[in-house]
């Protein structure tokens, strides 16, 4: 039979339910492949032994009614896992062992999932290439010395390399969709309020959202069904009726109206991306969708707005890292001296940069000019989408303005790094669901993705369009295992 | 409430400002790094100032995307006694307390 690690989640579940593969066999396969793939640097913390033990326990007392029966899953190291080290890719949390579990991961374990390990990410999820992690760069399995995207770069790398059947990431400005696009995988950012933020190391609280990353659309629908839940522990969790996303998944999208926003045709966008988008429009038409030109006039203001809102919220959220109760502590002569040295040594350059920007825009005399202004523009950006959704059911755009770049290529220029998120950031600002699906390759054979944006709480339509287009696109990653000796 | 729209112009963030901000953020900064940070912040703010072009006098700020009123919960303990687990993460070990440098003379 085919290699277990190359199966989709759906196929793996089916095989386990039909007792063709045991949970322990699955765990062994993923552990073995992960151990041979250390050069990718996808893991920060391995939970291999425990995973093998728990998979045996599952096999001794199997419950095939669960949605993820005995499935090993590695998760982004931004989710707090009880008794398992959680670093957020930062030196300041290098030795932090949570005494509680994030709701999203708890939902996965409740349905039979087993923790395989914690995956590398940009420090506090601040980055678009995984280069800001204290634990080093992550390799993209597509080609050597190529970034896997970020911030969920360990997640996208592990997924594309078949080290985990599915994974979860978090997305504040594109951190699920951009790495999915860079690795030829699927990544879904749900509507703000769908998946609980409880136990996720906070970056920008009004934007952060967890979501599934998978090899195909169906797998994302299965995982979304598990992780999306109303949670009293998150004050912004929303109590709405969630679909059975996987069983309601359909390729029939006849008559669905898809908008094409002209403002996403940005200066300097490579022809390859432009052509991919045009091809995507044709695919959507082939699927039975009606294409409608729309306008989102404030699109070009989204990135500047984001770079006020996100650092402002980050500077408040990261104020808690003071070296007192947990995490790194540097010695200082006084309490203040201890704080300043701890934070200077504990945070990396990008995190410090964003804390400084955030502190500046919130500081006395500047609040109205920056933060309040940004919140007003955020309103205009959201209104653009509200108006567009009077005419269309969903919106189709490229996921990123380019394919994956080389490690080191953009790390010295923060603004050019930020431009990576130009198509994904507006979706977070408006709190909408968005998915990236692989749709083609560039001249180097690197993957390119298309993004489908939906109405609030309408993940089902987003998934259905993606599922339908996926069949027409018929994308295949070509992974050569170059990192193995 | 009338909120005035303040037009802001790009002001160069100088070394003095960077040092002031780093004090507020409680991050100690070496002189050399402060200069690099000032450069980075200036290029980022140059990019941010694009927002000046937009008139927003009559726009309500969007503070939360989730249009819910904050829920209250009962003031009740819901977790087990995890005192020891919490103290285990403490950077300076002591059986009963968190320890910090001396704050009173």
Tell me briefly what this model is.
The complex is a heterodimer of chains A (485) and B (105). Chain A is of the alpha/beta class and 485 residues long. Helix content of chain A is 36%, strand content 12%.
Could you describe the 3D structure shown?
The complex is a heterodimer of chains A (485) and B (105). Chain A is α/β, with parallel strands linked by helices and 485 residues long. Chain A has a single domain, classed as Alpha-Beta Complex (Amidase signature (AS) enzymes), CATH 3.90.1300. Chain A has 15 helices and eleven strands. In chain A, strand 10 and strand 11 (447-454) form a beta hairpin. Chain A starts with 8 loop residues before the first helix and ends in a 12-residue tail after the last helix. By secondary structure, chain B is mainly alpha-helical. Chain B has a domain at 7-58: Histone, subunit A, CATH 1.10.20. Chain B is 32% helix and 0% strand. Chain B contains three helices and no strands. The model of chain B is unreliable at 1-8 (pLDDT under 50). The chains are: A alpha/beta (485), B mainly alpha (105). At the A-B interface, helix 9, helix 10, helix 11, helix 12 and helix 13 of A face helix 1, helix 2 and helix 3 of B.
């Amino acid at each position: 039979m085919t290699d277990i690690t190359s199966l989709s989640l759906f196929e793996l579940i089916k095989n386990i339910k039909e007792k063709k593969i045991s949970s322990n066999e699955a765990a062994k396969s993923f552990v073995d492949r992960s151990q041979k793939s250390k050069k990718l640097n996808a893991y920060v913390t391995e939970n291999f032994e425990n995973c093998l033990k728990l998979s045996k326990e599952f096999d001794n007392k199997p419950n095939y009614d669960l949605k993820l029966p005995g499935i090993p899953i590695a998760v982004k190291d931004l989710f707090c896992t009880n008794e398992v080290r959680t670093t957020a890719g930062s030196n300041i949390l290098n030795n932090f062992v949570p005494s509680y579990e994030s709701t999203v991961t708890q939902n996965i374990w409740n349905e039979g999932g087993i923790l395989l390990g914690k995956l590398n990410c940009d420090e506090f999820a601040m980055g678009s290439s995984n280069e800001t992690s204290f634990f080093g760069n992550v390799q993209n399995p597509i080609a050597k010395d190529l970034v896997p995207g970020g911030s969920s770069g360990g997640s996208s790398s592990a997924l594309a390399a078949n080290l985990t059947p599915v994974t979860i990431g978090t997305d504040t400005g594109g951190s699920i969709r951009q790495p999915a696009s860079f690795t030829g995988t699927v990544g879904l950012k749900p509507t703000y309020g769908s998946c609980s933020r409880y136990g996720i190391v906070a970056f920008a609280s009004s934007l952060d959202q967890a979501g599934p990353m998978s090899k195909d659309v169906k797998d994302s629908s299965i995982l979304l069904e598990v992780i999306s839940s109303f949670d009293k522990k998150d004050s912004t969790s929303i109590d709405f009726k969630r679909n059975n996303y996987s069983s309601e998944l359909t390729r029939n999208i006849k008559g669905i109206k898809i908008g094409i926003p002209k403002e996403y045709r940005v200066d300097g966008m490579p022809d390859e991306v432009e052509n991919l988008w045009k091809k995507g429009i044709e695919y959507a038409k082939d699927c039975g969708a009606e294409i409608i030109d729309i306008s989102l006039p404030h699109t070009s203001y989204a990135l500047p707005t984001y770079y006020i809102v996100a650092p402002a919220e980050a500077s408040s959220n990261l104020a808690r890292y003071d070296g007192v109760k947990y995490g790194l502590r540097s010695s200082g002569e006084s309490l203040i001296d201890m704080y300043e040295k701890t934070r200077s040594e504990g945070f990396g350059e990008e995190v410090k940069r964003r804390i400084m920007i955030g502190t500046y825009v919130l500081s006395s005399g500047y609040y109205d000019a920056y933060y309040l202004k940004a919140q007003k523009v955020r309103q205009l950006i959201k209104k653009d989408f509200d108006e567009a959704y009077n005419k269309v059911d969903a919106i189709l755009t490229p996921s990123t303005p380019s394919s994956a770049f080389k490690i080191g290529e953009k790390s010295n220029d923060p603004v050019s790094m930020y431009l990576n998120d130009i198509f994904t950031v507006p979706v977070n600002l408006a709190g909408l669901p968005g998915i990236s699906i692989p749709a083609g390759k560039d001249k180097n054979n690197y993957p390119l993705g298309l993004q489908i944006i939906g109405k609030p709480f309408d993940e089902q339509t987003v998934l259905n369009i993606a599922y339908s287009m996926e069949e027409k696109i018929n994308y295949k990653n070509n992974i050569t295992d170059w990192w193995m000796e | 409430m009338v909120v005035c729209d303040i037009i802001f112009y790009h002001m160069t963030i100088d070394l003095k400002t960077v040092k002031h901000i780093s004090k507020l953020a409680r991050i100690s900064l070496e002189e050399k790094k402060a200069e690099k940070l000032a450069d980075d912040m200036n290029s980022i703010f140059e990019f941010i100032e694009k927002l000046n072009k937009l008139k927003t006098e009559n726009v309500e700020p969007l503070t939360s995307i989730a249009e819910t009123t904050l829920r209250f919960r009962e003031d009740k303990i819901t977790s087990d006694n995890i005192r020891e687990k919490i103290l285990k993460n403490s950077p300076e070990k002591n059986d009963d307390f968190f320890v910090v440098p001396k704050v009173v003379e």
